[in-house]
Amino acid sequence: MGLFDRLRPRPKEDDAVAENTWLVVGLGNPGAQYAGNRHNVGQMVADELASRLGASFKTHKTPSRVAEGFLRPGGPKLVIAKPNGYMNTSGGPVSALLKFYGRGPERLIIVHDELDIPFDTVRLKHGGGHGGHNGLRDIAKAIGNEFTRVRVGVGRPPGRQDAADFVLKDFSSTERSALPNLLSDAADAVEAVADLGLVAAQQRFHAPS
Q1: Number of domains in the chain
Q2: Which of 29, 78, 186, 193 could form a disulfide with 45 if both were Cys (CB 3.0 to 4.6 A apart)?
Q3: The domain that contains 161 carries what CATH number?
Q4: Which residue from 160, 23, 3 is spatially nearest to 79, judged by alpha carbons?
Q5: How do residues 125-141 score in pLDDT, each as one tens digit?
């Protein structure tokens, strides 16, 4: 080791942690009346992730509740957030969280319900359109669309039922029996993106069953 190498400041551990920090936002609506809705599956996944990390959600300087923890010692840090406001105002809280933690959209994972894929299916995507999803629409308006999405399939509404009414209904009894596995898969997908990267995570979760 040369003289200049010895004199060069070493990165602090906090700097290394910050560099490997991911912001994970579970979308949904606040209040007990919405808690079991299909539209709130993103927040259900956030709860699953926090439980795995042994972390609890606390009030925060941004308009969100936040839980933090590490996937493993020396591994990626997850900042898991649930915005306090309604789905269609998600952009403000997400933007505030990115600024608070000094992260860019490339370190943001949004977990949300997806009508265009079947129930009990998880898909991963970077960027893309909002597809009529008001939460994604507001986030893209605030920060652009260059973030990773964990899309949790809730399927299409039956018959002529309006999509907006469908997502604001609770999961059916049949769906509820499979819901724990779906939440677990979606949480696994978030962890895989943070730990392995998007491409490797896609290869795992998009592989034919």
Answers
A1: 1
A2: 186
A3: 3.40.50.1470
A4: 23
A5: 999 998 889 999 999 99
